[in-house]
Amino acid sequence: MRFLILADIHANLEALEAVLERARGQFDQVICCGDLVGYGPDPNQVTEAVRQLEPALMVRGNHDKAAVGLTDLSWFNPLAGSAVLWTRAQLSEENRRYLQAMPRGPVEGDGFTVAHGSLLDEDQYLLNLEDALQSLSLPAHRLTFFGHTHVQGGFTWFKEQRAGPLDPGLRKGAAESRLALDSENRYLINPGSVGQPRDDDPRAAFAVYDQTRALVTYMRVEYPVGRTQQKMREAGLPPYLADRLRQGW
Ligand code: ZN
């Protein structure tokens, strides 16, 4: 079984379409680590596209919760908050109900776990090894896919009882990087953000997990950033949110 791992799509339809085009024929099922909406200009189209993919497993993200009123907006910075309010006003009733029904992470798959933030808290940011250690130390979870930080990579707990970060090293422009999984290690894998990367690479990020071969392939793909930015400006979303897409930050 091969899984397409998507996280943090953030209503960026152009990025999602580029990812699906690039990944075509390379996966059997889809896993989604949350944040379908928020920030971007196409919340309905992206939610509908994900619905059509019928993810085998998915968890909600903090923006999905906020967009349907399940979170207090005081947790959001003002720019993200104004995008949440804009998103709320756009969502069709059907999509609103779909987002509302997204499960809280972590959820268990066949031999792996899916989370938005961490194994302990769906809203926790795993930005560095120190933050990741608590989640990495849980032996029940050998392989976890997560999102939320918008940074492609993750963390490993090695069988030699030490931990380290995972860096796919794609910033210089390579399109993919492979990670062979060791069944005695534990992994927290972040496929990166489809729709709003924050790791100094503006290309859409995702991963493919080949369960049979115990192989994770991190991938990046270009998409028409200018078109997404144009739509954001026309929608009246905060200009900074459009600008950052070009930087990948
Ligand atoms: Zn996010």
Poorly predicted spans: none
The molecules bound to the chains, other than polymers, are: zinc ion
Counting DSSP E segments of at least 2 residues, the number of strands comes to 12
Note the total helix count: 8
Give helix % range: 25-40%
- Spatial separation of the terminal alpha carbons: 33 Å
Order of helices and strands: EHEHEHHHEEHEEEEEEEHH
Main sheet: which strands, in order across? 3-2-1-11-12-9
Shape: globular
Q: Beta-strand level of the residues, as a percent range? A: 15-25%
Keywords:
alpha/beta; 8 helices; six-stranded mixed beta sheet; 12 strands; single chain; binds zinc ion; about 250 residues
Structure notes:
The chain is α/β, with parallel strands linked by helices. Helices cover 31% and strands 21% of the residues. The protein has 8 helices and 12 strands. Strands 3-2-1-11-12-9 form a 6-stranded mixed sheet. A 6-stranded mixed sheet has the order 4-5-6-10-7-8, with helices on one face. The chain is globular, with a radius of gyration of 17 Å. The two termini are 33 Å apart. The mean pLDDT is 96. Zinc ion is lined by residues 8, 10, 35, 61, 63, 148, 150.
Describe the structure in brief:
It contains 8 helices and 12 strands. The protein is of the alpha/beta class and 249 residues long.
